[in-house]
Amino acid sequence: MDAIDEILELIGRRGDALYGNEGVTQTAHAQQSAALAEAEGAVPALVAAALLHDVGHFLAKDDTGFGQAKDDFHERIGAGWLAKRFGPDVAEPVRLHVDAKRWLVVAEPAYAALLSPASIRSLELQGGAFAPEAADAFRARPHAADAIRLRRWDDRAKDPAAVTKPLESYVPLLRALAR
What we know:
By secondary structure, this protein is mainly α. The chain is built from 11 helices and no strands. Helix 2 packs across helix 10, helix 3 (44-52) packs across helix 6 and helix 6 packs antiparallel against helix 9. The two termini are 14 Å apart.
């Protein structure tokens, strides 16, 4: 099974699960994230990262609640899996998208008020806001700017009424990026 077939199988098996209490499925959240990336003219690798940023939830051994009961380290699991299949331009923004949330609550004080209840809960589970030194170290990392963009799409991709193109429409993009 190639990487794209693996992704479609994972999402097909677990994508109908609700994304926390946000009122959207995991699949809808992924599609909305990718659509927001495309709407902002993101490069293909970043569109793929937006689409696949939560793949680690599908791969985590504990599949209850998609990270709502405890931190499942989905960003690390997903990034490791994606790095082997797509490389760093897809994997690293995924690895850093949780840290981007932790950075944004420090860098932009109004950001925390925009978080959904599920995102507030996951922020607590993921270690809360960065200390100033950790925030500076995060911002200096390669791919941090892409992770921040991804985080913003992630935060907005929770609209139960959003209409997006089907998951299969991203297959050519993913195939073009796959190793």
